[in-house]
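Re: Re: token formats

Sure, here are both.
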Amino acid sequence: MKILHLLSTVDPRAGGPTEGVLQSGLSLRALGHEVEAASLDAPDAPHVAGFGLPLHALGPSRGFYGLCPALVPWLKEHAPRFDAVIVNGLWQYHSFGAWKALHGGGVPYYVFPHGMLDPWFKRTYPLKHLKKCLYWPWAEYRVLRDARRVLFTTEEERLLARESFRLYRANEEVVAFGTRPPPADSAALREAFLAKFPQLAGRRIILFLGRIHEKKACDVLLKAFARVRDIDANAHLVMAGPDDNAYAAQMRALAGELGIAERMTWTGMLAGDLKWGAFRTSDLFALTSHQENFGIAVAEALGSGLPVLISDKVNIWREVQSDGAGIVTADTVEGASSGLSAWLAMDPAARDAMRKQALDTFTTRFHVEAMSQDLLRVLRENADLQGGAFSRDQFAGKRALR
């Protein structure tokens, strides 16, 4: 198959969707399929050249919305080369542009909302939600209504998506989601990480890895750690992620107020061997988010044999809890501190058993191969391929006659 992924950006700082597209695309290419990506990035953006898939950077775009005049003409010209276009994310111009270019045509498009319809945003940012309500009927509602399928990565996400807007219509389907396993050389990865952060040697590391953002409930994690730090003098909290924003500055100040600054390390964003080294060196991965559609970093932690402490607002919490691959708590200080206390008091045999289960859970549920096969199933079932109602070549011919 020939597949085009459409994103607002391939900047890794944007979070899980970029990584998910990359890993899915690499997996599908290894199976012999052709996968390309298009984004609203400027061609000279620093993150464009290093993206691991053939990429069409159609920007520069304008404003937070990402208005990109080149998108619709480019899609109309190039979409007929593909069997399917997959739109990743909502609320920026790439999704509406895909609808403008493709609805009613012969190339089907699919949408991954990636949690962007979760009602948490409605409750937390009511003014932004009001703006979205004005925008919804003539843009994103149509994007979802006319998509061949709207793809959710968990049943939880699918059900929550129905709660944000009264006017909602979508051909829903839940598909597997996952990522690649980590590099195999654990010892070398640990050595590389500790060479960069030697102060962490011998520590019992609780790792947060992701955006330092209000949604991630970083304040909850810091306050919970402050409550339990005396259980083990070697316990150390590592905050790994882009930390050059105002919220990160607030969290640094909060750490000082809580008296835990010396029991913490802020690494900045980690990538490559340093990221995997952080997973391999840590004892527990913690994500106490108020809202999390899937959490690629959770899957990466599990794949590294690292147990997780997550809130019940991370949409894969049921799988983690039922497998015994970690600890699930409420997204509150009380919940997180209770979970951390339980982990710090756990005997070595129980910790080792949870580590083993973490890896088993990744292998059976969140491996990128399962994701690729399930996505192929959906595309093959729904796309108009050769011999179907409308092939790519037929669509190109129809456009030529107009």
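Second one below.
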Amino acid sequence: MRILLTGLPIRSHLVPVVVPVALALRRSGHEIAIATGGAVAAEIERLGVPVLVLPRVLAPEEVGRRPELLAGLDLGKLRQWRPERTGPLSVPLFNDLMTAEFAADLLDAAKTWRPDVIVRETNEYGGYLAAEVLGLPSAVIDIAPLIGRLVPDLTERLNRLREDLGLPAIGSAAHASGRLTAGLLPEPWYPEEQRTPGHRYYRVPGVADEPPLDPAIVDLPPDRPFVLAGFGSNAHSLLATGSELMGITVAALGSLPVQAVAVLGSDQAVAGWTGPRPANVHLAAFVPQRSLLGACDLFLTHAGFSGVREALSAGVPMVALPLFAEQPGNAVRVHELGLGVRTEAAGLTPDALAAGLQQVLDEPSYGLATRAFQRRVLGLPALTAFTGDLESLV
């Protein structure tokens, strides 16, 4: 089969899961490519996956080139975002024009590439629309299970785009899930109303080629619980210059009887750090998070789905501090399932954050629940099984 995978041109949307799926499909004898914007093409191709570059599909940092894509967006509010004051950032999660252009560019590319099936990541709907126009089966790699809740008028918006493409209306946005949805955590993560007959659940394999751990982290004293604090690859670029979020985080960790690593997101941030420097907190630009989580007692996270998935796969309880997108919903789910606690960003202080961290460290039930959930993860078929399920679908 010729299988075309689609995704927004955002590294965290493609590299952790979509690329490994593409490689597994190719090992099974299928011809594959990923269709996305040019911003991530070079990295994906270095990983061994061919890319169909869609010319009008822009990464978030490129969207400013086209003001019409920013209509209705309060750029001033974005530039002033300090989560410790205002709480999670409201970001647009569906853009009608960008989705229409993704679908149109994809239809142009399909004239020569001629896919037999289209597999999209959750946030990308142009692939769904193109599959409908071409009469192809489609499937979803569910990298953000709770994000659809944040677009309550999604059905209506999809129907307007369908009408422009000469497609009949649908009764529910669930139609966009296609015939197969690859869930990346066990079924209990999904609220019951989101489970569909097309859902299958898979275990994402670990990464064998992550870089070795910094010796400064390797050699941290072993006499205290080890805490990792990381807010993902996107949050730091969104924070206003005056945000105190990381300073609050480091101060909170410094007040506890732990050894901790706080990830600041860049070498420049570490070199220019002027905040607190407690002796028990190591400041890092980046860490091999998926590997390091296996050595952690607690993870302080912004509750992005990839980070939550990696923590649960490693059996590590969490303190969830949601910052944007579907992260508040993920944090609620962490709390509901007893896998950690949610801490609010608005009004955050070092004492409040330290209290949440200490609560999870002191209460054994969080670790027990997370280990039990980890066993559920280990009981899932490997993500490579998606290949066989997709073949059966088509």
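The chain has a mean pLDDT of 93. The chain has two domains: 2-72+94-203+380-393, 215-378.
- S.
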